[in-house]
Design a protein that fits this description.
The chain is an alpha/beta fold. The chain contains twelve helices and 14 strands. The chain folds into two domains: 155 residues, NAD(P)-binding Rossmann-like Domain (Rossmann fold), CATH 3.40.50.720; 176 residues, Dihydrodipicolinate Reductase, domain 2. Helices cover 37% and strands 22% of the residues. The structure holds L-homoserine. The site of L-homoserine has 11 residues, from helix 7.
Length: 338
């Protein structure tokens, strides 16, 4: 039996426990052993939780930790401590990956364990592993993605005539939104995700502060009516353009012919252009308890298969990038067109 711990028992952390319990047979099939959640750490007084990270990292039974706390602290300190003990960490925490992912990946390598973050981008979509393993030999020139489930949920509902505030409230009730929904609607969450993707494919660390970022708060019902008249929709996209060396988050007009046009609700869609493979399209639930937790568990399984070895996540050696400003909007236009 492989023992793991979950740090933070919110939406994603409780989802990890649910995936481990409900899919124990499937997990045993791929691992040859059962996964067991031995510890849950949370600041709240929930039955059976521990509050002290030392209890977890001092237990030699613990091989992998799932960090689903979100935010920089104490997630950074706890991750650092675990990796230094040779305990792998799997996370959904894009803020931490953006801010300290390079350093934490290097610490993992030094201590023969791994730092994986599949769930930090695209929720349940197996995106980072696919880029790392199946596309490593490609020259990727462009990524354009709907990367925030909350914004896509709001925009999809606005297209159908709903008010912004009502749609945001629904997204929050469904557990899609960030604790502070400004991170969703101002585009910062998308910026963190496109920065992680752009870093992986460019081989340089692009931080979210380097992303030209505009959210969805200025999108109106009239904008949708105008877009519809032109056969288009409005989507918040994260765009990495290798040729221009720029990274952008902004609402875009998306024509009906694009595969991203029909990506609706909480779903994410990510288009990647490789020089040999041409266009790839990834689609799946970009937020929500079990889809995101499933991505965390996929990392746990990879870590367990590699206990005592570092999995190269392509992040440990990244030098800081210089990026250019994204091209301006066409003169007199409120939105760029995909
Ligand atoms: N708030 C995020 C979203 C959660 O809506 O996509 C998943 O990262």
């Amino acid at each position: 039996m492989i023992n793991i711990a979950i740090l933070g028992f919110g939406t994603i952390g409780s989802g990890v426990a649910e995936v481990v319990e409900k899919n124990q047979e499937e997990i045993k099939k791929v691992l040859g052993e059962n996964l067991h959640v031995k510890y849950i750490l949370d600041i709240r007084d929930l039955p059976g939780v521990v509050k002290d990270i030392d209890t977890i990292i001092n237990d030699p039974d613990i091989k992998v930790i799932c960090e689903t706390m979100g935010g920089k602290e104490p997630a950074y300190t706890y991750t650092h401590l675990a990796l230094e003990r040779g305990i792998s960490v799997c996370t959904s925490n894009k803020e931490l990956v953006d801010a300290h992912g390079v350093e934490l990946s290097a610490i993992a390598r030094e201590h023969n364990c791994s730092y994986l973050f599949e769930a930090s981008v695209g929720g349940g979509i197996p995106l980072l592993r696919t880029i790392r393993e199946a596309c490593g030999h490609e020259k990727i020139s462009k990524i354009a993605g709907i990367l925030n489930g909350t914004c896509n949920y709001i925009l999809t509902n606005m297209k159908a005539g709903k008010e912004f505030d009502a749609a945001l409230k629904e997204a929050q009730e469904n557990g899609y939104a960030e604790r502070n929904p400004a991170a969703d609607i101002e585009g910062h969450d998308t910026a963190r995700k496109i920065a992680i993707l752009a870093s992986l494919v460019s081989g340089k660390k692009i931080s979210y502060e380097q992303v030209d970022c505009e959210g969805i708060t200025n999108v109106t019902a009239e904008d949708f009516a105008e877009a519809e008249a032109k056969g288009m929709s409005i989507k918040l996209l994260g765009v990495y353009d290798a040729e221009n060396n720029s990274v952008l988050v902004a609402p875009h007009l998306v024509p009906k012919e694009s595969a991203l046009y029909n990506v609706n609700g909480v779903f994410n869609g990510v288009m990647i252009h490789g020089n040999m493979v041409d266009d790839l399209m990834f689609y799946g639930r970009g937020a929500g308890k079990c889809p995101t937790a499933s991505a965390v568990v996929s990392d746990v399984i990879e870590c367990v298969k590699n206990i005592g070895r570092n999995i190269n996540n392509d992040f440990a050696d990244l030098e800081p990038a210089n990026v250019n400003k994204a091209p301006e909007k066409p003169l007199g236009q409120k939105f760029r067109t995909l």
